[in-house]
């Protein structure tokens, strides 16, 4: 549900609307014939002019004008039985991408989603058909929108010819660097959520841009962006790790279609330089440290006491051998440092605990309000040793991540 500013509702509007819904549920609901509703201006059909308005607006976006040899890049695409195919193919053609292959079996809307177990690009197997098509046609990228086309996923070809999914954080970091490189970075505002990678904040700092952070959810990313942007810092880009991206202020919500176009342009520019998205990621990692992120859900005993209360009562001094440097408690709106000093957190309250550890690692704990389980988000940051190759650094970072997850979960 959206407010008049074009973004999803946040307090106090959500509570006000919920109260009106509760009140309406106690009353008789008047009915109107569709024709009458249309005549009275209460019903508006979304016809082709809406489609064309979006198409023209995206095509005119100054952030999507970097047409660097698009015809030299090929990509495979799937709408995953959703609504994205026509618009995705049209937008890509509008900016010069002539080698686009769509998965025919998944191109048309079908609410039974017959070819996937679950129509979420993050789910194992959901990208299999588009990656197979990419391999068949020799495409550099295998791209997907989820069924309502508000999220974007991509797998890119590796040196061995196989395709590997990029995480939402990897895509978000690539977008951050690419978009800031295309603009006057000192005048830009970029952001992500508290559970997303810290790499974007470092990329923003390196470019001299302003960075902001919010609670999870695009309703916060976009509403806060409107509040934070100024004449000196215009909103450029925001993302959340769950494959949601918004580029510019055309759409104040996650938009998988504009993200598709922007990523294709990013990849085409790299391709023209003889590089891949993996090369660009490695360059960012070598500059800022190799960032590895992971998420785990932990089931708890049905009658177990609230984990958040336990962690607040006896806060850990170290996790997996790493000293806890800062604890951020969003429920208490308080940030506590190792020396005992505290400061206020200005974000809305939420039952989230963040532990910032020695060496740049991070652990985030989000107790579920409805189920006996925890969501935990982990990040390790591994600098490259002198002369170290990428594979060795990746192996070392993965080992650190495995240790962090295992020891943290054992301690709960």
From TrEMBL:
Question: Which Pfam families does this entry report, sorted A to Z?
Answer: PGM_PMM_II, PGM_PMM_III, PGM_PMM_IV
User: Per its UniProt record, what Gene3D superfamilies does this chain match?
Assistant: Alpha-D-Glucose-1,6-Bisphosphate, subunit A, domain 3 (3.40.120.10), Alpha-D-phosphohexomutase, C-terminal domain (3.30.310.50)
UniProt KW keywords:
Isomerase, Magnesium, Metal-binding
* SUPFAM superfamilies referenced in this protein's UniProt entry, alphabetically: Phosphoglucomutase, C-terminal domain, Phosphoglucomutase, first 3 domains
| First-level EC class | isomerase
Q: Which residues form the Alpha-D-phosphohexomutase C-terminal domain?
A: 353-381
What's the EC number here? 5.4.2.8
Q: Any idea which GO molecular function terms this record carries?
A: metal ion binding; phosphomannomutase activity; phosphopentomutase activity
Q: What GO biological process terms are annotated to this protein in UniProt?
A: carbohydrate metabolic process; purine ribonucleoside salvage
Domain Alpha-D-phosphohexomutase alpha/beta/alpha stretches: 50-155, 167-286
What name is this protein filed under?
Answer: Phosphoglucomutase/phosphomannomutase alpha/beta/subunit
- What organism is the protein native to? Vibrio cholerae
């Amino acid at each position: 549900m959206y407010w008049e500013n074009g973004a999803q509702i946040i307090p106090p509007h959500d509570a006000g609307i919920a109260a009106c819904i509760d009140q309406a549920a106690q009353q008789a609901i008047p009915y109107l014939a569709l024709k009458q509703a249309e005549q009275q201006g209460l019903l508006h059909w979304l016809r082709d002019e809406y489609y064309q308005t979006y198409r023209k607006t995206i095509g005119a976006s100054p952030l999507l004008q970097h047409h660097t040899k698009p015809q030299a890049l090929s990509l495979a695409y799937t709408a995953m039985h959703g609504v994205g195919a026509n618009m995705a193919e049209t937008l890509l053609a509008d900016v010069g991408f002539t080698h686009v292959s769509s998965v025919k079996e998944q191109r048309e809307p079908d609410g039974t989603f017959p070819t996937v177990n679950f129509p979420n690009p993050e789910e194992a197997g959901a990208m299999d058909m588009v990656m197979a098509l990419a391999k068949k046609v020799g495409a550099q990228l295998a791209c997907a929108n989820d069924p309502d086309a508000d999220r974007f996923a991509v797998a890119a070809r590796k040196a061995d010819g196989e395709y590997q999914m990029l995480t939402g954080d990897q895509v978000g970091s690539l977008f951050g660097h690419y978009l800031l490189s295309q603009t006057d970075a000192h005048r830009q505002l970029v952001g992500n959520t508290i559970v997303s990678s810290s790499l974007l904040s470092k990329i923003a700092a390196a470019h001299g841009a302003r960075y902001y952070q919010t609670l999870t959810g695009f309703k916060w990313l976009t509403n806060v962006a409107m509040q934070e942007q100024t004449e000196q810092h215009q909103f450029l880009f925001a993302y959340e790790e769950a494959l949601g991206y918004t580029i510019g202020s055309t759409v104040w919500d996650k938009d998988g279609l504009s993200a598709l176009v922007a990523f294709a342009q990013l990849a085409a520019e790299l391709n023209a330089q003889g590089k891949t998205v993996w090369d660009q990621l490695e360059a960012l990692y070598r500059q800022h440290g190799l960032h590895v992120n992971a998420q785990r859900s932990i089931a708890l005993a049905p009658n177990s006491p609230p984990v958040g209360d336990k962690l607040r009562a006896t806060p850990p001094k170290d996790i997996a051998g790493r000293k806890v440097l800062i604890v951020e408690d969003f429920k208490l709106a308080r940030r506590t440092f190792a020396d005992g000093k505290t400061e206020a957190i200005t974000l809305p309250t939420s039952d989230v605990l963040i532990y910032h550890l020695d060496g740049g690692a991070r652990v985030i704990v989000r107790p579920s309000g409805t189920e006996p389980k925890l969501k935990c988000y982990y990040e390790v940051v591994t600098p490259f040793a002198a002369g170290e190759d990428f594979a060795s650094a990746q192996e070392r970072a993965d080992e650190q991540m495995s240790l962090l997850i295992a020891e943290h979960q054992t301690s709960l």
